[in-house]
Amino acid sequence: MHLLLSLLLAAAAPSDAPVENALASAGPGTRIGLVVTDDQGREIVAIRPDDRFVPASNTKMFTTAAAFALLDPNAADGGGGATVRLDGRDVVIAGHGDARLSSAADCVSDCLLDLARAVAARTRVVHDVTGDDSAFPDERWPQGMSWNNMPSRYGTAISALTIDDNVVTIVASPTTPGAAPGLVGDGYYTILNRAVTGGGKSTLSVTREPGTDRLRITGSIPADSSPQTLTVGIDDPAYRAAWRLAALLRGLGVRVTGSIRAQHRPASAIDEPATRATAPAPHPPQPVVLARLAPPPLAEDLLVTSKVSQNLHAELLLRRIGAITGSGSVADGQVAVQAMLDSAGVERWSYEFADGAGMSNYNRLTPRAAVRFLRWTQAQPWGAAWRATLPVGGVDGTLGRRFRGTALDGKLFAKTGKLNAANALSGFMIAASGKTLMFSALANDMPGDASATQAVDKALLAVAAAN
After folding, report:
1. CA distances from 288 to 82, 94, 275 (A)
2. Is the four-CA dihedral 388, 390, 391, 394 of positive or negative sign?
3. Tens-place pLDDT, residues 275-288
4. H helices of 185-280, where?
């Protein structure tokens, strides 16, 4: 343990040798901040409390809390449902910010097929099919996100018109040893199969250069394994939604004689329209709206967003917050989050957010600011409901395997975070005394992107045992 961290630990809590030893197990080079307070706000541990760290998905805490504060989580239709309309012979599907539109064969709620049926009931021939995501400005990726995440489901494009979580799936099945596996997609991407059947464990991976429609599948799949599903992010969700709608229309016997198109709202007045063919804006008189989907209450999506740390859903929440009084831009959402943190008494210098999910390397947060925010949430009318969305140690979500079988099994409620050389865990835990403690543990700069979670977990267990 280097001298500076030892001095900080000694100043914060001279008897906390177990905490010091636990954090030291993360190894040299790792920088860890830890603040723990009791329910009265008294600090029990304060290690690097005001250092600024990359918080990874701890960013979602602030986005989901703002959604609880400013949106109506229990609205009967969840808000933001997609619509389909006819403009002459052209079909336009428009998104309004909900993340749950599905084209899955087993869909039972918020289904694209219902919109396709509404069109088929009106006409048997359509011309162009357009996906319209202009409800929000065209800001598909946050500033500061690593480009290599773009083809993955964690970094897929963000759009007011979302379909199937904005990913495409490829099913890989083993064949004979040494031969290429079978790959089945839906035709949206061109697949370059460079994988083989064989080996003792699956090493399949998929890569795609952003902006291209070619997937390269490499690695191996054991000959005796079950089929494996690969997920790939997409660049233009509005185009993808129109493409899927056109396919469903054809399946219902509707002829599509024109093009698949996308309609975006530029993020600024000087921006050029983004990828794919861009359709002209609708002109008066307004086209006839045939159907609007009514998604489930937003509370269900807030639960999913926090429990599994769903990046796309969190980003859409930020834009929906920004649409209350602004344009639905990232900047508008950030204004709303900052106003919330002002109310919580969190100093402006102690945080910086470039997105709503935590994929940006530009984000910064201090442990003390996080704990101050956590304590403030519990004084809000929605605080208990918000806390209930957090993963539970040893029980569910991203904490389903952590703390299982320990003294904090079922007694820790916190948001996780993992990004390039960054780990985070902030929330609430029930200590040995039965008291509820609030904490924020932020770790950065791990050499080789090693995980600091074991060190953090050991420290929190030591704190819980001592209190």
Report:
1. 14, 13, 27
2. negative
3. 344 444 444 456 67
4. 237-251
For residues 123, 127, 128 and 129, what is the CA-based torsion angle, rounded to 10 degrees? Answer: 30
Strand 228-233 versus strand 167-173 pairing type: antiparallel
Q: For tokens 């429990």, name the residue.
A: 307
Average pLDDT on 242-267 reads 97
| Residue 457: its H or E element | helix 453-466
Task: Count how many Cα atoms sit within 13 Å of the Cα of residue 284 in the half-sphere of its side chain.
Answer: 0
Per-position DSSP letters for 346-363, written without gaps between them: --GGGEE-SSSSS-BTT-
How far apart (Å, rounded) are the C-alpha atoms in residues 315 and 157?
A: 10
Residues 379-400: what's their mean pLDDT? 98
Whether the Cβ atoms of residue 438 and residue 374 lie closer than 8 Å to each other: yes
Q: What is the dihedral of CA 33, 37, 41, 47, to 10 degrees?
A: -30
Yes or no: say if 171 and 111 are a contact pair by the CB < 8 Å rule: no
Rg (CA), the chain: 24
pLDDT at 445: 96
For residues 147 and 155, give the distance between their C-alpha atoms in angstroms, rounded to a whole number. Answer: 9
Q: Are 25 and 455 in contact (CB under 8 A)?
A: yes
Specify the pLDDT at position 72: 92
CB contact at 8 A, 47 and 459: no
Structure tokens at 204: 């399949």
Domains, the chain: 3-72+299-466 (3.40.710.10), 83-140+236-296 (3.50.80.20), 164-233 (no CATH)
Residue type for 212, please? T
Q: What is the pTM of this model?
A: 0.91
Average pLDDT over residues 399-413: 98
Higher-confidence position of 106 and 210: 106
Distance CA 295, CA 80 (A): 8
Helix (H) or strand (E) holding 316: helix 311-322
Query: What is the per-residue pLDDT across 141-196, written as a single tens digit (0 to 9) for each?
Result: 999 999 888 889 999 999 999 999 999 999 999 999 999 999 999 999 999 999 99
| Maximum pairwise Cα distance, the chain | 77
331 CB neighbour count, 10 Å cutoff: 12
Instruction: Cite the DSSP H helix spans in 227-277.
Output: 237-251
